[in-house]
Amino acid sequence: MLFRLEPRGERSGFWSIGSPVLAILLTIVTMMVIFALLGKPPVQGIETFLITPIANVSGLSSLAVRAAPLIMIGAGLALCYRANVWNIGGDGQFTMGALAGAGVALALPNGAFWWEYPLVLALGVLGGMVWAGLVAWLKLKFNANEILTSLMLVYVANLILVWLVTGPWRDPQGFGFPQSAMFGAGATTPDFGSTSIHLGCALAPVLALVLWQILGRSVLGFQLRVVGQAPRAARFAGFSNARLTWIALLVSGGLSGLAGIIEVTGPIGQLTTTITPGYGFSAVIVAFLGRLHPVGVIFAGLLLALSYLGGDAAQINLNMPNAITGIFQGVLLFYLLGADVLILHRVRRIRPRATEAA
Amino acid sequence: MILSMVTTLAMSVVAASTPLLIAASGELVAEKSGVLNLGVEGMMLVGAIAGFATAHHSGSAMLGVGVAALAGIGIAMIFAMLSLSFLANQVATGLALTIFGHGFAALLGAGYVGISAPVLHPIAIPLLSAIPVLGPVLFDENILVYFAFIMLAVIAWFLNKTHAGLILRAVGDSHDAAHAMGYPVLRIRYAAVAFGGAMAGIAGAYFSLFYSPLWSQDLTAGRGWIALALVVFSAWRPLWLLVGAYLFGGITFFSLYVQGLGISVPSPLVSALPYVGTVLVLVLISRDARRIRLNQPACLGKYFHATA
Lengths: 358, 308
What we know:
The complex is a heterodimer.
Chain A: E1 3-7, H1 13-37, H2 42-50, H3 57-82, H4 90-107, H5 116-142, H6 146-166, H7 199-217, H8 219-229, H9 231-236, H10 241-268, H11 279-289, H12 294-318, H13 324-339, H14 341-344, E2 345-349, H15 353-357
Antiparallel strand pairs in A: 1-2
Helix pairs in contact in A: 1-2, 1-13, 2-12, 3-7, 3-10, 3-11, 3-12, 4-5, 4-6, 4-10, 4-11, 5-6, 5-10, 7-8, 7-12, 11-12, 11-13, 12-13
Chain B: H1 2-32, H2 40-58, H3 61-85, H4 90-109, E1 123-124, H5 134-139, E2 140-141, H6 143-161, H7 163-173, H8 175-180, H9 185-211, H10 223-233, H11 238-260, H12 267-271, H13 273-286, H14 289-295
Antiparallel strand pairs in B: 1-2
Helix pairs in contact in B: 1-6, 1-9, 1-10, 1-11, 2-3, 2-4, 2-9, 2-10, 3-4, 3-9, 6-7, 10-11, 10-13, 11-13
């Protein structure tokens, strides 16, 4: 080996920001190689993937629509990961939020009450909290690994969704398609003007900023950081690990549930068998790329949202499978994790033995 | 009549258990060396498409299985490099492997949707396969069913009875002590991760070349994660993997049975049983935190950086 990693002894401030930038650059280069390997012109490929989708106003508004759920889920996951709680079930919490809110939206007479939409949103939050709370309860009461339980619950939530839209909640006027009736005007997320930008696009960054303030200024935020980085110190200080686990999971579940109910009452407008293209998993990358910081999450959410639009653009303009989105996201996370070694370590060339002895 | 029904049902249990057994026994070896690779699902998907594509073009399902193993190793090496050489967090890197594997398999598989490939055929073992019920269930199966049993026995023997297995366990329980004794910790871990990758790749090929022999994007449907749960369930003991895998196969059998009886339970809810079952099993097994702590490799998930 020609190089050796040497502990810095402290966190490098430069590299904690530099690492995601480096990772993004390396990902772009890798994507160009992949485009070339697939027989597409690399420069045109990366342009189609990253620039074409946001070259006009309607593209920018689609970006905001895609970023909203990623930012909401990602901000919650960042909170969890700070506390060393590995919630990867964002998609399940998203789905259960959507189902809880949709149940009320479908049951209430359309637009009869002014409080219908706020109630639908509140139930969305609650649905996500229940699904994540289940993970917290299983972890604290039975010591069950939260990675596995939160993931299993993603599959369970999705199958409950499929059951509801093919059975009890199927639209009788839907020609047998597996989907619910469209939500009425009283339970629809409002758009801004004539664009596709909706309430959630504004709510997502606001919630992230609120979370930032809470984390930065409260004792709770401090405790979360200590529990995550030095669990033993946290125990000696008397911080309740259980309480923090509950808070982290309930907050992130609530945010995912909110993202879910906004998605189905907004851009989608009804329940279908697929209401998320894997936002819950992309949000894991959002959280890491955003340095587990709510403000970072906003930027990371925009980039990951762009990768979804880029996949669609590559499919339409270059006749490529839109799975290219998943490749971009996976490669990006790989590079990010690799580059993060520079935060705590520096790279030293290993000199020949003779000079080393001197 | 009843005998043939029992045989059919038992065969469906074996069919559902085999890929879990293969993937979980590979992961068990990796975890015994101290590496927690959460990318099993991703490696399985890549193995599934690599095996399917190879079998489709070459006409040989066996060649497909071999290439699937190699593909599993290849993608596992990305994980190994990041988590072992670059000291990246193993949980995050494993997740990255699964996300990447999903995308990579979907990209490779885009041209293979709706195409067929040769499948793995049962190989009857002379004499033994003539035993009623047990014969067809255990001795007239495809080669990967035999492979799963043989590998499990080999792994149990390797870990518990050989010197190399002892070293592997030592690396997983105390990498510092193993390093001080002069064992190449990282090289051993690389090898264990590669083995886990090969087994996950083969488990993936089982899906695309036997269990549901058509390519679809989410072919493995979370089985890689269930395999991870099985390793916890087994408390890192190979023979208990067998119990866990067949318990899971039993749950799958039960859901088929319920549907077969014509009880009107909506099928999506029945399909949720294996996932709910996995959570329940995890809960039952993890309740005793001390038991988990006693059996879990002490360095599981921790990174190793030699200072001298």
